[in-house]
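USER: Note each token:
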Amino acid sequence: MRYSPILTFPDAAQEATVWIRELSELLGCEQRVAYEVLRTILHGVRDRLSVDDNAKVGNDLPMMLRGLYFEAWDPMRSRGHDDLRDLPTLLNAALPKSIASDAELLPKVLQLFEARLPRKRSNKLDIALRHCVTTARL
């Protein structure tokens, strides 16, 4: 019997491209900048959640974005608890300078996640994104 995945790698790549393109349009920036924004935010959230919560968040993301989320992650260095207090400051310092001054950046990223993962979005990811939106105007 031959294994045939429901979602092939080209399909997964196309889905990730759609996410990046949509974020690029929302932010009014180039796709490479949108990719950096998404990567920075995903890594910022990831580095502040426990191993279990990261597994739940990763499970909710599309395949290619899951790979981006876990890229270079060291679970042994995980904080083991939710500590989002410094997340807005970290993101402000790490986001591409060409877009970091956009006060609507985080609400637009949250809008993307709400549109793309309406029922599947992890509670922890949602909490982290909403925390950033309400506590920081970049």
